[in-house]
C-alpha cells in the first residue's frame, strides 16, 4: 500500500502541525533561539539523504548545536512544504521540461553527465574508461527504470530515453531509484543516473553515456528568504558533491 498524491499533501500539513507543537513546547521550556541552529531539509529519496552525509558532518563539526531535520516525500510534497516555509531548502534536480512559476528558485550546484550504472562485473563495466553511446545500451541486457512518480523528472527522463526504445522484456520497472541501483549492483540490470562523485561506491561502475544531456543538481529555496545557516549549507553541499570519494 502507498499514499495517494492527496495523502502525501495531507501528510505534509500533518507534519507541519506536529512540528509546530514540538517547537512551541521546546521554546516554552528552554527559551527562544532554538531555530538559529535548526536546518530543515527536504529530500525525495533515501539516496538523496545519503548525498547529504558529508555535508551535515562538516556543518556539525563547525556547529555542534546544529539541529538538522530531514523530511522525506515525493518531490511535489516537499516542494509544497518549501513554498509554505515548512522546510528551508530542498535538494533538487532541474526539471528538463522547464521550471514552474512559484515562490521558489533553483540554484545549480553541479552539472553531472549521465552514466550507465552497472555492477563491476557487468559487460558494460569494461567501457568505464571510454564511455558508451546510447545505441549500444539497447542490446546490453535489461534496464532498471524508476517509477516517474517517485523519482526526479531529470532522472526518469534519462532512463526512459533508452527504456522506451527497448522491448518490454528488457525493462524492469522499479519503485524508486534505490531499487534500480540495487538491481544494478546485483548484476541483474543496468540503470542510468547522474554521474555524481558522491554516489560512487564499491561494486558499481559508472560508465559515461556519450552525447547525453547533462543533469543539473542543486537546491531549491524560497525566493527572497535565506538564512545564514542555509547559505552555509548550500556552499558546503556544492563542495562535497563535487569531491571525489
UniProtKB/TrEMBL annotation:
First and last residue of the signal peptide: none
Q: Which InterPro entries has this protein been placed in? A: LysR_subst-bd
- Keyword Iron applies: no
A Pfam match is: LysR_substrate
* Residue ranges annotated for the LysR substrate-binding domain, each copy included: 35-241
Task: Tell me the SUPFAM superfamilies matching this sequence.
Answer: Periplasmic binding protein-like II
Going by the entry's taxonomy, the superkingdom of the source organism is recorded as: Bacteria
Record's keyword terms, sorted: DNA-binding, Transcription, Transcription regulation
What family does the entry list? Belongs to the LysR transcriptional regulatory family.
Q: What is this protein called?
A: Substrate-binding domain-containing protein
Amino acid at each position: 500500500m502507498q499514499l495517494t498524491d492527496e495523502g502525501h499533501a495531507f501528510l505534509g500539513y500533518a507534519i507541519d502541525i506536529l512540528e509546530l507543537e514540538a517547537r512551541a513546547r521546546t521554546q516554552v521550556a528552554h527559551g527562544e533561539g532554538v531555530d538559529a541552529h535548526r536546518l530543515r531539509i527536504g529530500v525525495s529519496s533515501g539516496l538523496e539523504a545519503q548525498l547529504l552525509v558529508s555535508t551535515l558532518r562538516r556543518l556539525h563539526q563547525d556547529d555542534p548545536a546544529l539541529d538538522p531535520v530531514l523530511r522525506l516525500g515525493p518531490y511535489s510534497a516537499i516542494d509544497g512544504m518549501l513554498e509554505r516555509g515548512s522546510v528551508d531548502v530542498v535538494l533538487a534536480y532541474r526539471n528538463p521540461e522547464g521550471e514552474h512559476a512559484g515562490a521558489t528558485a533553483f540554484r545549480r550546484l553541479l552539472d553531472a553527465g549521465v552514466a550507465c550504472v552497472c555492477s563491476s562485473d557487468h559487460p558494460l563495466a569494461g567501457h568505464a574508461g571510454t564511455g558508451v553511446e546510447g545505441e549500444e545500451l539497447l542490446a546490453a541486457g535489461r534496464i532498471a527504470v524508476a517509477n516517474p512518480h517517485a523519482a526526479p523528472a531529470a532522472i526518469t527522463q534519462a532512463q526512459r530515453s533508452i527504456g522506451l526504445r527497448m522491448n518490454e522484456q528488457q525493462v524492469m520497472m522499479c519503485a524508486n531509484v534505490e531499487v534500480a541501483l540495487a538491481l544494478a549492483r546485483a548484476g541483474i540490470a543496468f540503470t542510468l543516473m547522474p554521474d555524481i562523485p558522491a554516489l560512487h561506491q564499491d561494486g558499481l561502475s559508472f560508465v559515461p553515456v556519450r552525447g547525453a544531456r547533462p543533469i543539473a543538481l542543486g537546491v531549491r529555496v524560497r525566493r527572497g528568504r535565506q538564512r545564514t545557516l542555509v547559505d552555509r549549507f548550500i556552499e558546503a553541499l556544492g563542495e562535497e558533491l563535487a569531491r571525489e570519494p
